[in-house]
Amino acid sequence: MPEPYDVITMGRIGVDLYPLQTGLPLARVDTFGKFLGGSPTNVAVAAARLGRRSAVVTRTGQDAFGEYLHQQLREFGVDDRWVTAVGEYPTPVTFCEIFPPDDFPLYFYRMPKAPDLEIHPAELNLEAVASARVFWMTGTGLCAEPSCSATLAALRARDRSGITVFDLDWRPMFWEEPSSTAADGSPDPAPDSSPHPAASARYREALAHATIAVGNLDECEIATGEREPYAAARALLAAGVELAVVKQGPGGVLAVHRDGTVADVPPLPVEVVNGLGAGDAFGGALCHGLLAGWDTARIMRYANAAGAIVASRLACSSAMPFPHEVEAALAAGSVTATNATATNPRPAPTTTPTGSGAAS
Predict the structure, then answer these.
(1) pLDDT at residue 85 in the model
(2) What confidence tens digit (pLDDT) does each residue in 139-184 have?
(3) Could you tell me the end-to-end alpha-carbon distance of the chain, in angstroms, rounded to an integer?
(4) What is the value of pTM for the model shown?
(5) pLDDT at 81 over 70
(6) Which of 77, 266, 277, 318 has its CA 20 to 30 A from that of 43?
């Protein structure tokens, strides 16, 4: 049997077209950088940068952007054997606006349907998924068929073995609007208290198969109905996971384990250029620390530092740090954009330091 992968992620992929100018609306931007994007794909890149054998399960369009994504994955050392093409739909692109330190609007172009939502259960290599040391899936993978069925099939194949991470990844624009009526058209007599009952039901189903849940406060509310960090963590544990990781932005990160271990870790101060990739760097570093067998507090500090480094850079995928960079940030106690080494050109940083909190 082939050597198991350290990390297999599953879900969204696309091309990020990010402004090379900060503080401007898209209508006034005239230069863009092109990057590999998509949260679970970036997590695979982040883990690979930290020395982990990584692969991603996803789909692109059968077009030039799809070819570009394959090239980028190979350059980053991520196995692309399970990245297949869909002839009917184009590869998605995503634009953002960059207003440091905390305003980064995203504009997703995934119509009429994103190829990564066309993953079918029968196409999965369930043996590889089941044997991976870490399997990482996301909430977006549950938003449409056949991706939802494929994601749940992968979770069932894991059978709660190894480390199975559910990134709550709530993107409401990818989901159908919630209905307030019953199937027969009459008013629903007992609507779910969730902002999106259908999403919450799918999240609960997935949580029963996961060993770790990771999300910010909005995502925890969709999954559990709770926004207070400790209440959200307790609700995630009650839903079945062993470790609940609640990201709080400038408030840092809270991790609560079923064995009673609690790590409430403050953020690493950072001069922010673009906060959009911080959560993906956090995820890759989380996988790395879990595989290394570190204690929970050390993992959270390391993941916070990785997220802070990416927040100090323009891109997501190409900004993922190497181990020596994370260790240097931890030793320094902060991250400044002026001393962060980026692969791609980036704009001048904001001068207002803020905690990254590993926001996604």
Answers:
(1) 98
(2) 999 999 999 999 999 999 999 989 999 999 999 999 998 865 444 4
(3) 36
(4) 0.91
(5) yes
(6) 266
Look at the block and give the residue holding tokens 């624009």. Answer: 173
DSSP 103: B
Whether 233 shows a pLDDT value over 80: the answer reads yes
Mean pLDDT, the chain, rounded, equals 91
How many angstroms separate the CA atoms of 227 and 254, rounded?
13
Report, in this order, helix, strand and coil percent for the chain, each rounded to 5.
40, 20, 40
- Rounded distance, CA 243 to CA 151, Å? 20
Rounded distance between C-alpha atoms, residue 163 and residue 279, angstroms: 18
On whether the CB atoms of residues 260 and 337 are closer than 8 A, the answer is no
Q: Identify whether the C-beta of residue 116 lies closer than 8 Å to the C-beta of residue 13.
A: yes
Q: Which residues pair with 169 in a beta bridge?
A: none
In this prediction, residues 37-55 reach a mean pLDDT of 98
pLDDT band at 62 (very low <50, low <70, confident <90, very high): very high
Phi, psi of 271 (to 5 degrees): -85, 115
Closest among 179, 151, 181, 177 to 166, alpha carbons compared:
151
- Structure-token pair, residue 198: 């259908």
Which residues contact residue 292 at a Cβ distance below 8 angstroms, ignoring those fewer than 6 apart? none
The answer to whether 310 and 35 have CB atoms below 8 angstroms apart is: no
Q: Residue 16: beta bridge partners? A: 35, 94
- Number of Cβ within 10 Å of residue 3's Cβ equals 7
**DSSP-derived pairing of the beta strands 253-257 and 243-247:** antiparallel
- The beta strand positions in 38-181, using DSSP E, are 54-61, 78-79, 83-86, 93-96, 106-109, 134-138, 163-167
Residues in the chain: 360
